[in-house]
Amino acid sequence: MKILVTDEISQEGLQPLLDDPRMEIDVRLGLPVAELHQLIGGYEALITRSGTLVNPALIDHGRNLKIIARAGVGIDNVDVDYASQKGIIVVNAPYGNVNSAAEHTMALLLSICRNVPMASASLKAGEWKRAPFTGYEVKGKTVGIIGLGKVGGRVATRCKAFEAEVIAYDPYIAEKRGDDLGVKLVSLEELVRYADIITVHTPLNAETRGIINAEHFPKMKDGVILINCARGGIIDEEAMLSALESGKICGSAFDVWSEEPPATETLKKLISHPKMIVTPHLGANTFEAQKNVAVDVSREIVSYVDGRPMENAVNIPRFDPDLLEHMKPFLDLIQQMGCFLAQLAPAHAGKVTFIYNGKLARYDCAPLTVCGLAALLNRRTDQDVNMVNARLVAETMGIVVEEVRNTESESFSNLITLVMESPEGKRTISGTMFEGIAKIVKLRDFLTDFTPEEHMLVMHYQDRPGMLGKIGTILGESGINIGNMNLGRRKEEGEAMVVFSIDSPLDEATVKRIAIEVGARFIKQIEM
């Protein structure tokens, strides 16, 4: 796999890729946009941090891209939706710099409470002043945390260690997490009203952009402290500047900006304000964090090449890590079922239903559904369909996708059924795992028992004496060896469904001859 690295990435963190002979890595830093567009088409993977804008134009030029790896938590410089439409997997490193971001938050918090940068600059200038730099203790203060996720939770723990009262606003977490951290969950309005210190720890998206804005500042306590070590734009910067200039805010510390490097007049005024402590996006800038995030995305790329599930892909359904090994065989099964059914079913499908019965139905089966859907659709469109874009492609094709789960199963401990509906009727296939081997146990309403092979022949005909002998004779005369055969029928000398595994593909003339000789109602050669 050819990999392009466009931002500063820890060399030590890239070691999993450097040690793998299948990987070819090019490090090209600071490329002009035009040159990057010209080069990207030759690579299958892109590793970046925040310095490269991965927008639709770049993605369009990356005609061979399979995976975009963002060595960090945030993905706001990557157009994930557009990458998904193109079937490109986007991965990040959500855990590698968590500790660094939390520690930098505490560094800024303590620096502003104790006026450390200002006092340092004064002393270095030859002054000996103490009174202007009288500070505040964190102990006894109410710290309001917006976003109690990985970083916010660590900040809460550290503030509790300083004997502060901690409140938090996060509508997406359970009360138990707040209880476990010793944090009271409140509304955003309550947090703004009662906090002495407010710090934000959310991703930047449509919901969180400007979550603290002009309407909130008048409701805050006089002398409040604001900290942003998450993403620029979460706190409205123009409103922030106005609050600083009005004296409402005692002080503030920002590590991130809505534009990086900052260039607008608002940002320049904000950065130069005497009540601001500022750093140039250093939250993840520790040697440990840079190594960790690089290791994390490197391992994800290796997993992709090995065909293993990826833990930190942001645009494909994920398994609970505890279930990965348990569920992996069913991924293989449903891929084979989808590929098989796609070749049997008529065109213009309007609906596909995925039915899960037995123990498997206790778990989230969404990853299985998109995996099966991708296998199904890959035979029906020129577009490359995978787990990333399967649902988008189905929607574009006007196909309704449904998922049904039922923990009861009559004959098998686990059973997966795919039903495809079209104006010509339904096509059904059911499969299970038996001692680690994928088995197809039902086609339409015929009971079967076979393992999908590379070359197969499926027939539906009226069963009569001598039919199998005729088929075998024709195949033998054509030099085709039968590897296996499975016959399913409803009653003696009734309708039959037969599936042959053959060692090599058939020519069309032989297929037509068999169809005529046995009076086949349906005959189809399957290539897996």
Architecture overview:
It is elongated and about 110 Å long. It is α/β, with parallel strands linked by helices and 528 residues long. It has 17 helices and 22 strands. Helix 5 (98-113) crosses helix 7 (150-161) and helix 10 (237-246) packs across helix 11 (265-272). It has a seven-stranded parallel sheet with strand order 8-7-6-9-10-11-12, sandwiched between helices. A six-stranded mixed sheet has the order 14-13-15-16-17-18, with helices on one face. It folds into three domains: 2-95 and 289-306, 3-Layer(aba) Sandwich (Rossmann fold); 98-278, Rossmann fold, CATH 3.40.50; 321-527, 60s Ribosomal Protein L30, Chain: A (2-Layer Sandwich), CATH 3.30.1330. The two termini are 25 Å apart.
Give the number of domains. Answer: 3
- CATH architecture of the largest domain, by name, is 2-Layer Sandwich
- In the CATH scheme, the class of the largest domain would be Alpha Beta
Low-confidence segments: none
Helix content estimate: 25-40%
Shape, per Cα inertia axes: elongated
